[in-house]
Amino acid sequence: MSNYFTNQLRGYPVVLSALQAYSKDICRNCIGLEGAQTKVEKGLKKLCMDLKGSSIPGEEKEALLAQINSLSREAEAIELSEDCECQKTAGNCKIGTGCFPLGALDIQKLITEPAAL
Amino acid sequence: MNTAEVLNIRGSCCLETAGIRQHLKDLMSGNTLKIVFDPPLRQDMENLVAEEKCEILHLDDEGKSLTATILKKASTIEMLKVSPVADYPTEEGCFLCGNHYSPVAVVVMLNAPYGTMPPEVKSIPPEIDKLVKSAVETGAALSGTLQTENIGIEKIVCNIVGNPNIRYIVLCGVDVEGHHTGDALRALAENGINQQRTIIGSTAVTPYLLNIPKESIERFRKQVTLINLLGEMNPEVIGKAVWSCYQEKPAPFLNYMLSDPGAYPEQPMSCRLNWRVKKPESIEEWELEDLVKGIEEEQKAVAVPQEKEVAVRVSEPKVAAIASHLLRITEELSQIAKIIVGEAEAKPIAPVKEAPVVEEEKTVCAVKEEAPAVVAPAVAELTEKELYFHNQLRAYPGILAGLSACDKDICHNGLSLPVAVNSIVKKLGKLKKDIEVSSISEQRRGEFLARIDSFLEAAQRLPTDPGPCQKTVGNCTIGKGCLATGAANLLKQITEPSSLTQ
Question: Closest-CA residue in chain B for A111?
Answer without folding.
Answer: B478
